[in-house]
Automatic annotation (TrEMBL):
InterPro entries: dTDP_dehydrorham_reduct, NAD(P)-bd_dom_sf, RmlD-like-bd. Its EC number is 1.1.1.133. GO terms for molecular function: dTDP-4-dehydrorhamnose reductase activity. This is dTDP-4-dehydrorhamnose reductase. The keyword Cell inner membrane does not apply. GO terms for biological process: dTDP-rhamnose biosynthetic process. Binds 1 Mg(2+) ion per monomer. It catalyses: dTDP-beta-L-rhamnose + NADP(+) = dTDP-4-dehydro-beta-L-rhamnose + NADPH + H(+). Catalyzes the reduction of dTDP-6-deoxy-L-lyxo-4-hexulose to yield dTDP-L-rhamnose. Its cofactor is Mg(2+). Pathway: Carbohydrate biosynthesis; dTDP-L-rhamnose biosynthesis. It comes from Chitinimonas arctica. The keyword NADP applies. One of its GO terms (cellular component) is cytosol.
Length: 296
C-alpha cells in the first residue's frame, strides 16, 4: 500500500486525483495552506515528516496571462517547487509524478508533437513549466512527467465553465479557431495516473516524459461548438452566434501555440492505456455539471 503525498488538492486535477488514488493506499492530500509550494523549507519538512512512498504534484501556477508579469511566482511554483520535490524523492528513492503542458512546444507546424521533439515555449508559463521538467530530470529521481493540454472539469476555473457562463450572458461569441489541440478532462488525467500506479511499474525503467491528453483534436472554437451543442440539448441558453476567429483577432498578453497536437503512442506502448476521445470525455463531464435553465 502506498503512502501518497498529493499537492494542490483544490485544483482541477488535484481534486480528481484525491478520488482516483483512493484504494492505492493512504492519500495525504494538501492544499496551499497545508503545504505552500513557495516555501522550500516547508516542502522538505513535509516530505521528511510524512515519508511518502509516492509524491504526486498537480499543483501549479496556471494563470497564463498573469504569469507574463509575475514570473517570480510562476518560477517558484512551477520550477523551484518541483525541483525540491524531486530532490526529496531522490533522497527517499521514491517516484515523483508531475504534470506539464503542451505550452512547452513552439506551436509551429501541424504535425503532432512527440515527447522527443524539441521544446521552445512561447510564454513565461510554458518556460516555467519546462524549467520544472528539466529540474526533475536532472535530479535523477524516478519520475513521470505527464504533459497534458486544455484541461477542464466540473470544478475550478476552465474553458468549459467559462463558455457555459458566457453563453448565458451573451448573444454572440468570437472564439479562436486556429489553435488546435485536445481538450482534456481532469478526470481522465487522474484515472490514467491511478491506472499507472496500480500497475506497479518498474519506475526506473518507465521514468520519463509522456503525453496524457484525451484523444482526437479540435480548435477552441470547435470545443465551444461541442459545449454549446450539448448545453442546448439540455435546455440551456447558448449564444445565437458563435464565430471562429484568428488568434490575431483575440490579443492576449501571453502568446499561445497554434499547434498543440500531442501523440499518445508512448503512453499506449508503455502502459497499454488509451484515454477516451475528447468529445466522449466532454459528454461524460457535462453529466456532472448541473444545467442552469433560465426562468426556473
Ligand atoms: N489547466 C490547464 O489547462 C492545464 C494544466 N496543465 C498542468 O496540469 C497540472 C494541473 O493543472 P490544473 O489542475 O488545471 O491547475 P489548477 O489551476 O486548477 O490548480 C492548481 C492548484 O495549484 C495550487 N497552487 C498554486 N500555487 C500554490 C502554492 N504556492 N502552494 C500550494 N499550492 C499551490 C492552487 O491552489 P489554490 O486553489 O489555492 O489557488 C490550485 O489548487 C498543472 O501542472 C498544470 O500546469 C497542463 C496543461 C493544461
Ligand atoms: C474566453 C475566450 C477565450 N478565447 C481563446 C483564448 C485562448 O486562445 C483560448 C483558451 O483561453 P484560456 O484563457 O481558457 O486558455 P489558457 O489559459 O491559455 O489555457 C491554457 O492553460 C494552461 C494552464 C495550459 O497548460 C494550456 O494547455 C491551456 O489549457 O480561447 C477566445 O477566443 N474567446 C473567448 O471569449
Amino acid at each position: 500500500m502506498h503512502n501518497i503525498l498529493l499537492t494542490g488538492v483544490n485544483g482541477q486535477v488535484g481534486f480528481e486525483l484525491r478520488r482516483s488514488l483512493q484504494g492505492l493506499g493512504h492519500v495525504h492530500a494538501t492544499d496551499r495552506e497545508q503545504l505552500d509550494l513557495c516555501d522550500p523549507a516547508a516542502i522538505r519538512d513535509m516530505v521528511r515528516a510524512l515519508k511518502p512512498t509516492l509524491i504526486v504534484n498537480p499543483a501549479a501556477y496556471t494563470a497564463v496571462d498573469k504569469a507574463e508579469t509575475d514570473q517570480a511566482a510562476a518560477d517558484a511554483i512551477n520550477a523551484t517547487a518541483p525541483a525540491i520535490l524531486a530532490e526529496e524523492a531522490k533522497r527517499l528513492g521514491i517516484p515523483l509524478i508531475h504534470y506539464s503542458t503542451d505550452y512547452v512546444y513552439s506551436g509551429e507546424g501541424s504535425a503532432p508533437w512527440r515527447e522527443t521533439d524539441p521544446v521552445a515555449p512561447t510564454n513565461v508559463y510554458g518556460a516555467s513549466k519546462l524549467a520544472g521538467e528539466e529540474a526533475i530530470r536532472a535530479s535523477g529521481c524516478q519520475h513521470l512527467i505527464l504533459r497534458t493540454s486544455w484541461v477542464y472539469g466540473a470544478h475550478g476555473k476552465n474553458f468549459l465553465l467559462t463558455m457555459l457562463k458566457l453563453g448565458r450572458e451573451r448573444d454572440a461569441l468570437n472564439i479562436v479557431a486556429d489553435q488546435i489541440g485536445a481538450p482534456t478532462w481532469s478526470r481522465s488525467i487522474a484515472d490514467i495516473t491511478a491506472h499507472i500506479v496500480a500497475a506497479r511499474p518498474d519506475w526506473q525503467a518507465v521514468s520519463g516524459i509522456y503525453h496524457l491528453v484525451n484523444g482526437g483534436e479540435t480548435s477552441w472554437h470547435g470545443f465551444a461548438e461541442a459545449i454549446f451543442k450539448l448545453a442546448a440539448a439540455r435546455g440551456e441558453k447558448v449564444p445565437a452566434s458563435l464565430s471562429g476567429i484568428a488568434t490575431e483577432a483575440y490579443p492576449t498578453p501571453a502568446k499561445r501555440p497554434k499547434n498543440s497536437r500531442l501523440t499518445l503512442d508512448k503512453l499506449r506502448d508503455t502502459f497499454g492505456l488509451v484515454p477516451p476521445s475528447w468529445d466522449t470525455a466532454l459528454e461524460l463531464c457535462l453529466d456532472e455539471v448541473p444545467p442552469v435553465i433560465q426562468g426556473q
